[in-house]
C-alpha cells in the first residue's frame, strides 16, 4: 500500500484452491518484521482479520516445492 493504513480484513481466492495449504499470509509495517495471519478458509476464499495498521502484505509459499497459482480475487477492507 502507498501509506500505512488501518485494515479490517484481507481476502483472496487463488486457482487452484488446493494451493492454499502451502501458503501463508503475512503483514508488516516496515518490510523487516513480518507477522503471519491465521487464515479462515471459506469456499476457496481465504480470509484473515487484521487488528493493526499495516503497509505491506505478502502471500508466501511455505513448502519446499515450487508452486504456481492464478489470483482470482484479492480484497482489502479498510476500517
Descriptive overview:
The chain is mainly beta and 79 residues long. The protein has one domain (5-78). The chain is built from no helices and 8 strands. The strands form 2 sheets. Strands 1, 4, 5, 6 and 8 form a 5-stranded antiparallel β-sheet that branches. It has a 3-stranded antiparallel β-sheet with strand order 3-2-7, with no helix packed on it. A hairpin with a 6-residue loop joins β2 (23-28) and β3 (35-37). The relative contact order is 0.41.
Question: In short, what is this structure?
Answer:
By secondary structure, the protein is mostly beta strands. The protein has one domain (5-78). 0% of the residues lie in helices and 57% in strands.
> How would a textbook summarize the main sheet?
5 strands, antiparallel
Give me the oligomer status: single chain
**Class of secondary structure makeup:** mainly beta
Instruction: Return the domain count.
Output: 1
The whole-number mean of residue pLDDT values reads 88
Shape category: globular
Which percent bin holds the helix content? under 10%
Descriptive key words:
single chain; 79 residues; three-stranded antiparallel sheet; mainly beta; five-stranded antiparallel sheet; 57% strand; globular
